[in-house]
Amino acid sequence: MPFITQGKTNWKFLLIVVFLAVIVGGGALYYQFQQKEELKFNIVSGTGTIKYISIEGGFYGLITDDGKKYDPNNLSQAFQKDNLKVKFKARVRDDLVSFHMWGTLVDIIEIEKIETAEIADWQTYRNEEYWFETEFPKDWMIIEEATTDDAFLVTFANSKEENTVQKEEHCLLGIGIYKNDRNLSLNEWAKATYWADPKELEGKINEINFNNQKAIKYEFVSKPAGLETHILFYRPSINSETNKEIISIVTSHSSEEKDCKEMFNQMLSTFRFIEEDETADNWYHITIAKKQAITSDEPTPYLRELFGLPEGKSFSLVYDTGEGDPYETRFDFSYYIFINDQLIKLKDKYENENLIVEVANVDPKLMPYLEDSDYCESNEDCVIRSNFCAYGAFNYYQRFIDVWGCEQGFYPEEDEKSLQELCNKETEHPEVKYTGAKCINHQCVAQGRTVTCVKGVPI
């Protein structure tokens, strides 16, 4: 298409040329800008695990597979889940300072969940004496849990039989914690505890990173245990940095059990140390859906049965008053549940012939509100309402109570008798009202209190 045709300017052709020039030029400028951005900020990528870090009020950090710690500036709610494996790309923010004082501050550019084998229905083993926990398959058993003056050992197996290792088909995973009074190195410990000639281990010991700890790994075949894999590392000391205890994780399986190795890898991926200041209170958000008609209006026994909570293990329910009134439905409602036992961990979903219950983690920032209905951070947190047993200023979170009756009067600031003396008790009753509520020293306080005598005697 010629630019000039018979002495006339071809404006259509000119516009196309200009348009293409803008696109190409803009693309080049964008590429140069991107290159400058890449140079300006250090871009990091890889795989790692989202961890809840219980310092500075609690937050979610990212620990890479090679042990680097990143403090994500913009981690979305969907990825704020403890022990979630992810693949990520992030921009290091050297120009900003994190108030968490943990890891390197980054902006997440790309992030996606790494799909793993289904372990949602696994059991959780948690040991608060030695500060660790791990998950294991629901059909496996803890066949041994022993403690001596010098050691602790727990063993998981795919069989209930005591002599599991004698079976032709077996999978075993043991976690042992041993006193290291001689302050041996990991290599020295491996050779000192090897069942045969320690020279056989030469060239077989490899240094690895396990759970952000420097560790060693070695394998050998023994009878009757089969193929054994040993991972050794020092247990992080709660009070000091000495190497007084060594953790030994041992797996063994027969040649017939080909799926053991994959199972071991999944179990080891869930192993973690419990933080010293990790809360002993277990809070979860549960959403209940009723599958069939239930004659009872009391949800707690159904939840106890569904969650497998033994008698004596107390729990309580809290609901958000802004979402509605659970006393109208009891079921088909969402609650916050507190379980007074740190060893009990809920799964993501439960279902039986009566209910479907989905379970989610609770934002740590919400816990003060759940634990104290008077707690607040700002005036917007407070509302004038009844908390079932009293009327006044509270936050929006209320404990679900099934006992009709209260130890205190409905108006806590004055007893019923004092209020009644303001009115003719034969024909009137007192009614207390407030003009609003304020947050003062993190407590909701009612404002503008008035008492009015209303005709009629309340039922």
Explain what this protein looks like in three dimensions:
15% of the residues lie in helices and 38% in strands. It is elongated, with a radius of gyration of 31 Å. The protein has 459 residues and is mainly beta. The strands form eight sheets. A seven-stranded antiparallel sheet has the order 10-11-12-16-15-14-13, sandwiched between helices. It folds into five domains: 4-40; 43-113, OB fold (Dihydrolipoamide Acetyltransferase, E2P) (Beta Barrel); 123-273, Protein Transport Mog1p, Chain A (3-Layer(aba) Sandwich), CATH 3.40.1000; 282-359; 372-455, no CATH class. It has helices at 11-40, 186-193, 260-270, 300-307, 367-371, 416-420, and strands at residues 4-5, 8-9, 43-53, 59-64, 69-72, 84-92, 104-113, 123-127, 132-136, 141-147, 151-157, 171-179, 206-210, 213-222, 226-234, 245-253, 272-273, 282-290, 315-320, 334-339, 349-351, 355-361, 383-386, 391-394, 397-399, 428-433, 436-440, 443-447, 450-455.
